[in-house]
Amino acid sequence: MDIEQKQAEFIDHFVKQASAQKGTALVSVIVEATSHPSLFAFSEILAVPTVAELDGTENSVYLEVLRLFAHGTWSDYKSNSGIVPQLVPDQVLKLKQLTVLTFAETNKVLPYDQLMLELDVTNVRELEDFLINECMYAGIVRGKLDQLRRCFEIQFAAGRDLRPGQLGSMIETLSNWLETSDNLLISIQEKIKWADNMSELDKKHRKEVEDRVEEVKKSISAKQAEVDFCGIEEIYFEPGGVMDYEEDRSRPKRRRHPRP
């Protein structure tokens, strides 16, 4: 089962749980969802009406926790550690995984130094173990660890929830991509049309050459026939030819006298 299908099942599970609870009962649902090892999307849970009703209540800090896991990073948590509740170890791990996904959204090469700073990792060995065991084995990223260049080259990364205001930027990006694709399609169609025209011209030129060659062959054959016919006339009608031979036969033969 791929990660997208797993996400859909877990999201549906927690949305149903959140929809069936209110107030303080939602706290345990939020903690469980943000601690779950295979759940990395939270916007659908945030959209549940009973969850939104936590805003302004004594449990509103857990609404902020859910928003942090939907859009934030480990650095965001450290900056607001005095506002949101202390995270349990599974939540810490999850938020660091989400931090890697955030950086992978905009960069395909992640420097080790930047990742160690953002994840509070003290050495390269610890960082590489985290990327392999907690990110690649979890299926949220694929990539190559380059120890020589001290970087993580991203080949695939799961997407995070859209942040507020990010939808407009994404629509603009997709619109630009669509326009570029349309222009590229038009260019390809024009090149195909040009190639078809060149093919037709090539066929026409080839036909003209073949017709010309055929005309030359016919002309050569005609001239050869004319030469052959003239040769026959020379044999039958010129002096020393057949007519001379016939005339010679009509003359009286001389008698030979025996020698004395």
Describe this structure in words.
The structure is a single chain. The protein has helices at residues 3-19, 25-35, 43-46, 49-52, 60-71, 74-79, 89-106, 112-119, 124-136, 166-237, 242-250; strands spanning 109-111, 141-146, 151-157. With 260 residues, it is mainly alpha-helical. A three-stranded antiparallel β-sheet has the order 1-3-2. A hairpin with a 4-residue loop joins strand 2 and strand 3. The longest helix has 72 residues, at 166-237.
Shape: elongated
* Largest sheet descriptor: 3 strands, antiparallel
Quote the beta fraction: 5-15%
Sheet with the most strands: spatial strand order: 1-3-2
How many helices does DSSP assign? 11
Question: Which segments are poorly predicted (pLDDT under 50) over 5 or more consecutive residues?
Answer: 241-247
In helices, the fraction of residues equals 55-70%
Class from secondary-structure proportions:
mainly alpha
The end-to-end span amounts to 134 Å
- How many beta strands in the DSSP annotation? 3
- Gyration radius (Cα, Å) is 46 Å
Tell me the series of helices and strands, N- to C-terminal.
HHHHHHHEHHEEHH
Mean pLDDT across all residues, rounded?
A: 85
